[in-house]
Design a protein that fits this description.
seven-stranded antiparallel β-sheet; 5 helices; about 30% strand; alpha+beta; disordered C terminus
């Protein structure tokens, strides 16, 4: 969730898992993160969300925030353990950065190498390794020494190119947040019939002059406050809202509850190595 003003968000993680069509398999851990400026309040457990007393407590006691991430895990790499539970957190440029991934990329360590020891995986998942690789690529933007926040467009360009470089390895739906902006990359996901295909993620954007969203039966409870609001989920959380299937390969930057910029899928011509990558221009919010 990205919103213009901080709002209280309660999560029924068991309900969210059921809404995603999982009905039980996503039992290998859960996590939820509430940003407050540069820092974040992060809670994770490697046990099933449905059995967690902490989940029930946070359903009604989650702190107000304008940037919230949550994840329910089905282990594909790395056993159920706290070190393998998402969202993952690292520091870069004096800010907390978070990452959560839905999919599987078994060959990510061969395709993407870490060149420094600044970011080192704690666990064994492909997701955390990919996160460390992304932060390495973003490092030059944040470590310039002037203390300024890099532009959304500069950050989005790095995220989009990174997503393109790894997308061929397997399903790569991810959300990444730096406390200022939420970056979303959609790809493919295993649908209810067991086939991997788009859409991997869905987007809903609502403004203060529209009717409030009723998500109480879908695992999300939002405080009734007039503001800009953007929600991203693997599947739509409601049946009567205009959820947009995000195109595979598209990267979206959400800021203060609005779509700040979008980059369509970047296509690379592989047949002729002398030709450069086709680059779609960033469509930035005015």
């Amino acid at each position: 969730m990205s919103s213009r003003y901080p709002t209280s968000v309660g999560f029924s993680l068991e309900t969210l898992a059921q809404r995603g069509g999982h009905n039980g398999p996503h039992k290998d851990g859960w996590g939820v993160a509430y940003f407050e400026g540069r820092d974040v309040f992060l809670l994770r457990e490697s046990s099933p969300a449905a059995e967690s007393e902490l989940v029930r407590f946070m359903e009604v006691n989650g702190p107000p925030s304008n940037l919230v991430l949550s994840h329910i895990r089905l282990a594909t790499q790395g056993r159920p353990a706290l070190r393998n539970t998402q969202p993952f957190q690292r520091e870069l440029g004096g800010r907390a950065h978070l990452f959560a991934h839905n999919g599987s990329m078994p060959d990510v360590r061969e395709a993407c190498s870490l060149t420094t020891n600044q970011f080192t995986p704690v666990g064994e998942t492909d997701s955390e390794f990919a996160f460390c690789c992304l932060l390495e690529r973003l490092g030059s933007l944040w470590n310039g020494g002037n203390g300024n926040l890099p532009s959304v467009e500069a950050r989005l360009e790095v995220v989009a190119e990174f997503a393109t470089s790894l997308r061929s390895l397997g399903a790569f739906n991810f959300v990444y947040a730096d406390g200022d902006t939420l970056f979303v990359h959609a790809h493919i996901r295993k649908q209810n019939d067991g086939v991997e295909r788009p859409p991997g993620l869905h987007l809903l954007v609502r403004s203060s002059n529209e009717q409030a969203i009723d998500l109480t039966q879908s695992g999300v409870m939002l405080a009734p406050v007039a503001q800009e609001l953007a929600l991203v989920a693997s599947v739509p959380l409601t049946d009567d809202e205009p959820w947009e299937p995000i195109a595979p390969g598209e990267v979206i930057a959400l800021r203060q509850g609005c779509v700040w910029a979008r980059v369509p899928a970047i296509q690379t011509r592989r047949a002729d190595p002398s030709r450069q990558t086709d680059r779609q221009s960033v469509q930035a919010r005015a």
